Amino acid sequence: MTQSETSQLTDACKRCNGTGLIPGAENIGYVECHDCGALPVSKSLSAGYREPPAMLLEANQPKSTGDILRDMAATFDERNKVYGSNYLMVSKLVKVLFPDGVPPGLVETDHWHLFELKLVKLSRFAISNLSHMDSIHDDGVYSAMIESILHRDSLVAK
Fold it and tell me: What distance in Å separates the CA atoms of residue 149 and residue 16, rounded to the nearest whole number?
């Protein structure tokens, strides 16, 4: 680090010298400095200090497109272990429930969207051997939301 860079860092924060990190206890290494809000950057650390944990260095870095896609894939894999390919079941359920086709205009209503969400939750509940509590709770919530729409729009069948 040049003398000019060190001077700029010192002017930024006397506590952390602009690194965004301050020495912690012997066994902790570095902790973030909250006095200046500087980002913890590895190259700003002077010689003799241990490198801060990668987690601190990466916390303030924007995610790359590749990182985001890997996170998405991990989420998909995690959910797929629980739910399987239930997203492929919704259209099949609709065909069974509406063998003559969905009535025109129904798909443009608020309660249709909630009905489809109920099918997603119901299929997830079925895939879990009727044990995934969140899915059945969500299904109940969607039912109540649909009922409120039916009342709001005076669509309650007699």
Answer: 57
pLDDT in tens, 73-125: 999 999 888 888 888 999 999 999 999 999 999 999 999 999 999 999 999 99
How does pLDDT run across 1-59, given as a tens digit for each residue?
A: 444 444 444 455 666 665 666 555 544 455 555 566 554 444 344 444 455 555 555 55
Could you tell me if 134 and 125 are in contact, meaning their C-beta atoms sit under 8 angstroms apart?
no
Burial label, 20 (beta-carbon count in 10 A; 0-12, 13-18, 19+): buried
Q: What is the DSSP string of the chain?
A: --HHHHHHHHHH-TTTTTSSEEE-STTT-EEE-TTT-PPP-GGGSPTTSPPPPHHHHHHTSPPPHHHHHHHHHHHHHHHHHHHTTGGGTHHHHHHHH-TT-PPTTGGGSHHHHHHHHHHHHHHHHHHTTS--HHHHHHHHHHHHHHHHHHHHTT----
pTM assigned to the model: 0.57
